[in-house]
Specification:
Layout lengths: L4 E2 L6 E8 L3 H6 L3 H9 L9 E5 L5 E8 L11 H4 L4 E5 L4 H13 L16 E3 L6 H19 L7 H14 L3 E6 L1 H6 L1 H7 L7 E7 L6 E6 L1 E5 L8 H4 L7 H16 L4 E11 L11 E3 L5 E3 L7 H13 L5 E6 L3 H7 L5 E3 L3 H13 L5 E2 L17 E2 L8 H10 L8 E5 L3 E2 L9 E2 L4 H12 L1
Parallel strand pairs: 1-6, 2-4, 2-5, 5-6, 9-11, 9-14, 10-11, 13-17, 14-18, 15-16
Antiparallel strand pairs: 3-4, 7-8, 8-11, 12-13, 15-18, 19-20
């Protein structure tokens, strides 16, 4: 059982009256007259998210009324557990099983706080799990999101490549998945660009490789950029630009969270998760602007900027993923500032040459209220990643269209370009919203799982 939920009714539980906007008068007509009087005396308006505690004549709580949209959102009551402390609520209202499941999920996500390093100084209310709720679905989404948020929120001094590998091993062990790690000389020989990026750190770079499922099922590969800290390398970031770079392993965290959901649900796929895991720091073995490096694919790359390291480590992982001709490769990365300039912090950029795939993904993500925006793989911009001395340049010759040129760079390493999706996400909440506190975020996690579940089950 997750905290702040209960599945057996308790004597001190009270109703949480969920009233769809436009139905308040009808609800009042079906309840005692003093309810209407109380709402009027408190100037209660039928505005989305508004809630009010209604007392009994004895002074005890009769319940809490909250206004929700006609089309209920996962976030409709996610603010309640924070605003009202230490109460036990039972959802009451004319809502479907699917709607109540959404409300429970949002409630759970609204109880997240990263408290590993701070004395717990918050309290939440709890919500009843009724028989009509799909608790397995809600629980899986809450747990996976918390797992991702916790990883992204960890500071780099406590989450380097080794600690990230331990988290991956723990997850793999829970579901009897196979896990291998390529490190040291094996990494140098077989994954040269991963080794190059992480070689300056005293915390060794590595490729984490998880396999789960049956060989005769459709092959799906998740690739997650796992840069546990990104200083920018010799092309060093500003202090402001470096401040949140503990989150540069967000793509890897989301890939692990998605793997958790896939394995927990038992999807009919042959799953592989590739996590190129490094720190991009400055040291005696730092790679330098102007270097020409080898990649696993044999493609040579001129280093235009050491702060464009993510695409280098992803390139080797993509080459590895190509080996068994997977049905689908999904790349997840906090890859470019350009995507954030174009779309802001809350809207991931998604790239694919397969419009049917994108349409299917969009439909599922929108149903889960996980939104993204498609950006084009515009071939006309390939000229920007040309090099006079190597096959490619990792940063290109222009500051324009950086998210697109980064995606085009990755596409150069993909064997079957129709079965590839690249997601450039932020993995962070810059503002506090219901169910989404400031800090690490599992961008597109629910939508991606829904897409894979629909596609392969």
């Amino acid at each position: 059982m997750l905290p702040y939920f209960f599945d057996k009714k308790v004597s001190n539980s009270v109703p949480l009256w969920v009233v769809k906007k436009g139905n308040l008068n009808e609800w009042l007509n079906n309840n005692p007259k003093n309810f209407s009087t109380w709402l009027k005396s408190n100037d209660f308006n039928e505005v989305l998210g508004n809630f009010l505690t209604i007392p009994k004549q004895s002074g005890k709580i009769a319940g809490v009324v909250v206004i929700v949209p006609k089309k209920i959102s996962i976030w409709s009551i996610a603010h309640i557990p924070v605003k009202i402390k230490n109460k036990y609520f039972v959802i009451t209202g004319k809502i479907s099983s699917e709607e109540e499941t959404k409300l429970l999920t949002g409630w759970g996500l609204g109880t997240y706080r990263f408290d590993k390093y701070k004395k717990k100084n918050f309290e939440f209310s709890s919500l009843y799990i009724s028989k009509k709720v799909n608790w397995q679905k809600a629980k899986r989404e809450i747990e996976a999101t918390f797992f991702v948020r916790n990883l992204v929120n960890l500071p780099a001094n406590d989450l380097g490549p080794g600690e990230f590998e331990k988290a991956a091993k723990s997850l793999a062990s829970d579901y009897n998945a196979n896990i291998d790690t390529v490190i040291g000389n094996d990494l140098l020989v077989n994954f040269p660009s991963i080794n190059t990026v992480g070689n300056a750190s005293n915390r060794s770079p590595r490729l984490i490789d998880i396999k789960w499922g049956k060989n005769n099922k459709p092959k799906v590969v998740l690739i997650g950029k796992s840069v546990c800290f990104d200083s920018g390398g010799l092309d060093i970031k500003s202090s402001i630009g470096m401040r949140k770079m503990k989150k540069d392993m967000g793509g890897g965290a989301i890939a692990l969270g998605l793997a958790y959901m896939i394995m927990d649900a038992g999807l009919n796929i042959d799953l592989r998760v590739l996590l190129p895991t490094v720190e991009n720091v400055i040291g005696g073995k730092s790679y330098k602007p102007g270097d020409i490096i080898n990649t696993k694919s044999g493609i040579t790359v001129e280093i235009g900027n050491t702060d464009a390291e993510g695409r280098l480590i992803l390139a080797d992982a993509i080459t590895e993923a190509n080996k068994k001709n997977p049905d689908l490769i999904i790349s997840l990365a906090t890859l470019t500032g350009a995507a954030r300039i174009a779309l802001g912090s809350e809207l991931p950029a998604v790239f694919s040459n397969n419009e049917d795939l994108i349409s299917e993904l969009k439909l599922n993500c929108e149903k889960q209220e996980d939104y993204f925006w498609q950006l084009p793989l515009w071939k006309g911009y390939e000229k920007h990643i040309d090099s006079n001395v190597a096959d490619l340049n990792n940063s290109g010759n222009t500051s324009f269209a950086g998210a697109i040129t980064a995606a085009l760079f990755l596409l150069k390493f993909v064997k079957n370009k129709r079965d590839f999706v690249h997601i450039d996400a932020y993995s962070w909440n810059d503002r506090d919203q219901a169910g989404r506190p400031i800090g690490g975020e599992a961008s597109l996690l629910r939508g991606l799982f829904s897409f894979l579940q629909k596609r392969y089950n």
